[in-house]
Amino acid sequence: MMQLNDRHNSTLFQNKDIVLAITPQLSFVKHDVLISSGMNGELYVYTISSGKKEIIKNSKNVLHYLDVFWIVLPDDQENQRKLWKAFYDSYVQYYESLINTANNISCLELFKTIITEKTTTLLEKKILDFGCGTGLSAKVFGNSDILCYDNNPVMRQKALRNGLKTIDRERFLLLEDELFDICIACYVFHLTIDKYDLMNIIRVIKKEGLIIANFYKCINENEVNSFMRENGQIPEKINIEEGTFGSVFMYRKAKYID
To answer: In terms of residue numbers, what domain contains 50?
Structure first.
């Protein structure tokens, strides 16, 4: 299969029906629903056969993502993580043109409101931005007391250009215990986050600290919340307008719940 170049990718975005998977062995292909279009990095790229869109749309293991892609999610979480990594490796250069930037900033502003309501002040609080992307948090929180982690080096470079301090995975895993007052994760937890990473987030947050995250289309909400409860974190759902930012949760260590 031929590698798709940037010009071809830009053309593909216009049809808003790009189907991505990490394996060519799909029942959709066998039943003539999908037609192979090549590869982009480690991702197999398909188009939908004429008149077959409803089959994809109504399939429980297919996610409509960013209004452009149809992601064929594997059943197991390890391969889901592999798919998401391959996706962002392949499409990171288009990230801010694909997302609704204003919506992401509004989500971060909600996080800031929650922090302000649940703590005495934002001043002098150390914040970890987990999965920082291109560093949109700088527009809401500033850049003085925020440290940004993203597994994608291109994302980190863009966040760095936005004036934020960034760390790679190696440094993230070596952070001191109870270093941060707050962790924010905006449009991240739906990406099948490794439980080892979740455990490290818990580890680096102070006993009285907060973790605030949203779940795009409520994906992986139950799995993450179960893990948090098992590790002493109490999830509290934040009431927001249905459909806005997916679902939003705040986590605190059990003995600090009022």
So the answer is: 6-98
